[in-house]
Design goal:
alpha/beta; TIM Barrel; eight-stranded parallel barrel; 8 strands; elongated; binds 3-methyl-2-oxobutanoic acid
Length: about 280
């Protein structure tokens, strides 16, 4: 049986140069298949706002929505390291509220850690959650919850000065006690420095090679249709499969092909005649 990784396994994997592979999951079936495939970690990302709820960003996602989806993923993948993603508004208003919400993820969903966005400005929050005995993963670079302030979903750290600020954010997250950091949407040169400077695992999405990669499941499956970021590689065409299946089903029902005999229940012997007699 697959063994769930711990923070120490993840650290060893960095130290030995073994890549960690993870993906987002928002529902039971996807999480079950990801665990079966041998995924190292699962993130119940607030990207569910776009991938599941059809919002234009992650800002509207609530704690309750994240809790529902995280619970389902935890049930589906008991042997995989599961990350709860703290939605916008659940850790910005104060340390006490942030700790309360991190605790909810642990008590109600059984996550292995929580992830939150930001660097220097969220360091006190990270420290407080870690002091509460919980694991925190940082998230720096392109932080979708502040895409408004960043002027949209755009690459960050493309000048030496802005890259320096991201490297300092990553360091602040590490010094606050985060066991790992996710770097999103920055040139690979920036990620490389963070990866070299920090002793903890550094994972990337749109950040080039580092200690491991995460992708949005509906992007790699070829399911999400609204847009495809530059850093996404599609490994399948699940949307195409949906289209084929839906078209075939519509066609068969309309033409009386489905349901066939093989999809119907049989009456108990002798009961068909009785029924017909009663209802003729
Ligand atoms: O919410 C999410 O899916 C994320 C990704 C950027 C990994 O944080």
């Amino acid at each position: 049986m697959k063994k769930k990784l711990t923070r120490f396994d993840l650290q060893t994997m960095k130290d030995e140069g073994r890549k960690v592979v993870w993906v987002t999951a928002y529902d039971y079936v996807t999480a079950q298949l990801a665990e079966e495939a041998g995924m190292d970690m699962l993130l119940v990302g607030d990207s569910l706002g776009m991938a599941v709820y059809g919002y234009s960003g992650t800002v509207p996602v609530t704690m309750e929505q994240s809790i529902y989806h995280t619970e389902a993923v935890r049930r589906a993948a008991p042997n995989t390291f599961v990350i709860g993603d703290m939605p916008f508004g659940t850790y910005q208003a104060g340390i006490e509220e942030a700790c309360y919400n991190a605790i909810r993820f642990h008590k109600e969903c059984g996550v292995d850690c929580v992830k939150l966005e930001g660097g220097v400005r969220v360091a006190p929050v990270i420290s407080a959650i870690c002091d509460g005995g919980m694991l925190v993963m940082g998230h720096v670079g392109l932080t979708p919850q502040s895409s408004g302030a960043m002027g949209g979903f755009r690459a960050q750290g493309r000048t030496a000065d802005s890259a320096k600020a991201i490297i300092e954010d990553a360091r602040a997250v590490y010094e606050a006690g985060a066991f790992a950091v996710l770097v999103e949407g920055v040139p690979p040169e920036v990620t490389e420095i963070i990866c070299r400077e920090l002793p903890i695992p550094v994972y990337g999405i749109g950040g080039g090679p580092c200690d491991g990669q995460v992708m949005i499941c509906s992007d790699i499956l070829g399911l999400f249709q609204a847009f495809t970021p530059k850093f996404v590689k599609r490994y399948g065409d699940v949307a195409g499969e949906y289209r084929k299946v839906f078209a075939a089903y519509i066609d068969e029902v309309r033409n009386g092909v489905f349901p066939g005999d093989e999809h119907t229940y049989k009456m108990v012997d002798g009961e068909v005649e009785k029924l017909r007699e009663q209802w003729k």
